[in-house]
Structure formats: C-alpha cells, structure tokens
Specification:
Strand content of chain B: under 5%
Number of domains of chain A: 2
Helix content of chain B: over 70%
Distance between the termini of chain B: 59 Å
Oligomer: heterodimer
Strand order of the largest sheet of chain A: 1-3-2
Largest sheet of chain B: none
Structural class of chain A: mainly alpha
Order of helices and strands of chain A: HHHEHEEH
Number of helices of chain B: 4
Shape of chain B: elongated
Largest sheet of chain A: 3 strands, antiparallel
Structural class of chain B: mainly alpha
Distance between the termini of chain A: 5 Å
Shape of chain A: globular
Number of helices of chain A: 5
Order of helices and strands of chain B: HHHH
Number of strands of chain B: 0
Radius of gyration of chain B: 18 Å
Chain lengths: 178, 110
C-alpha cells in the first residue's frame, strides 16, 4: 500500500483528473479557455485542500482498476435484471438473510469501494463493518474485520461469500497492494 | 432512427424505475424494501439519461455529455444512501420478517 505521490505539486493525481474532466463536461465544451481554466482548477483545488484530507492509498495498477470497473458495470446491469425478476416473482418464496463476510482488506478506502460495489450488485446491500473502530480501546489492534450484508434471496451462504471475495475483493486487494 | 432508439431507451428506463417502485410497495419488511430502489433504479435512470443524451445530441447543435455525469453521481450516491438507511434501521432494531436467516450476525450497538 502506497500513500504518498511522487510529485509534491500534484498531491492527488486522480482527483485532479476527475476535476479536469468534470469541469469540461459540465461546461460541455473543449475550447482552449475552458481547458486552461480546468487545468488551473485541477492543480489548485487538490493543493489547497490537501492539508485537511486524510492520505488515501493510491491505485497501483490502473489497468486492473479499469478492467474491474468494466466488470462491475456489467454486473450492475445483470444485477438490475435479476433484482427486477426477484421483485416481480412471488414474494413468499424469497428467503432474506444477513451474512457476515470476513474481509482481507484493512484500509477504509478499499473497504468503502467494496461495500459500494456489493450494494450495487445482485441481491445484496452492505449494512455494516464490524468491529467498530470507535469501540476499540486506545492502542488495541484491529483483528479480523467483517462486512455485514443483507441478501434479498439467500440460497447458499458459503458460495455467496466466496463469490464476493473472489470477484470483488481480490482485484481491489491487488490494485491497492494492501 | 434516433427516435426509435430514444423511445426504446425511455421504455426500458421507465419499466425499471417502475419495477423498483413496485418492489418498494410489495416487499414485506424494510430490509427487503431497500433492494428495489437501490438497484432496479440505477439502470432505469441510466437508460433515461442516455435517452436524454441522444435526444439533445441529435436535435440540438453540439454533443451533450452532461448526462453521463449525472449517471456517475447517481452510481456513487445510491449505495451510500442505502448504507445510511440500513445502518439507521439496524440502530433502531427494526423488525425483519421471521424467515430472515442469520439475524445473530447483527452485533449489538455501542
């Protein structure tokens, strides 16, 4: 896991890129004036805000991140269709359930991304991360963390845990190298 | 041609949003109700916005890409609002229907 960037004047390269693109898209133009303004905003805003932002891990493998994004987008589309079928089908046959997924990730940013992908993909909504960091006493080490998820139609708990770990957690672990 | 694509996208989007709302009404408890609006609507909204994008790109001069931003922000905010709601529901110890499995997986609040 790497927290620091290589360049001092560009504290958050990804945020700069997002700001640049969002400015151009919001103005819906590619004129040189807007490109100039976008560049200034993309450099100045991360510089000014960096003192009060906590250091986040950096994506080390961008190629893998893009492939994972494509996979998640595809899963979102299939998830929509699956949930629509479940909703329109008979409600009495659904067996909802809470499942605890053990996490290998340790940093909060990858865990947040994992929780969001779980919420957007088939039949699951993430509910909570155990144990709470707040409940730990000073200096106590965080042991195994769990992600609590609510499943709309629980068939095989172990298979679901395995699927989430392999399909969504493993790529995140690899791209952040943590 | 564009009109056809726009109409099909509008229909798909409309039906997904409708299914999401049906789920909201039909499901028996709060936790199951949450599934419809968080998922079935993301694709619905995405198709509606794509239809809007094609419509404004073909009828007005220039290319309109603002709608992609709206879809992206929706994708970012939908799981977070779902997370906040389900967290609040667990905190208030809302009852889930009897056949819910793994209730003991919920730990007590601090």
């Amino acid at each position: 896991m790497r927290l620091e960037t290589r360049f001092k004047w560009l504290p958050a390269p990804l945020m700069s890129l997002v700001l640049f693109i969002v400015w151009l898209v919001l103005n819906n133009s590619l004129s040189s004036g807007h490109i100039f303004l976008a560049t200034i905003l993309a450099i100045v805003i991360p510089l000014v805000t960096s003192p009060f932002r906590t250091k986040q891990p950096i994506i080390i493998k961008p190629g893998l991140a893009l492939r994972h994004l494509a996979l998640v987008l595809y899963d979102i589309i299939t998830a929509n269709v699956q949930v629509a079928i479940l909703i329109l089908g008979p409600t009495k046959k659904l067996t909802p359930g809470f499942v605890k997924v053990p996490l290998d990730l340790t940093h909060s940013l990858p865990i947040t991304i994992l929780a969001s992908t779980v919420s957007l993909t088939p039949g699951t909504v993430s509910a909570e991360v155990y144990p709470w960091r707040e409940s730990l006493s000073e200096g106590e080490k965080l042991e195994q963390q769990f992600l609590l998820i609510h499943v709309l139609d629980l068939k095989d708990e172990q298979a679901l845990i395995k699927m989430i770990k392999q399909r969504y957690e493993a790529p995140l672990k690899e791209m952040f190298q943590c | 041609m564009a009109e056809w694509i726009i109409s099909i996208l509008l229909l798909i989007g409309g039906s997904f949003v409708l299914v999401g709302s049906i789920g909201l009404v039909k499901m028996p408890d709060f936790f199951m109700r949450l599934h419809g609006p968080t998922k079935a609507t993301t694709l619905g909204m995405a198709s509606l916005l794509t239809a809007a994008m094609i419509f404004f790109s073909t009828t007005h001069t220039g290319f309109s890409v603002k709608e992609i931003l709206i879809s992206l922000f929706l994708l970012l905010t939908a799981p977070i609002s779902a997370y906040m709601m389900i967290k609040a529901a667990i905190h208030h110890k809302l009852e889930s229907i009897e056949r819910t499995k793994g209730i003991d997986n919920i730990e007590d609040d601090v």
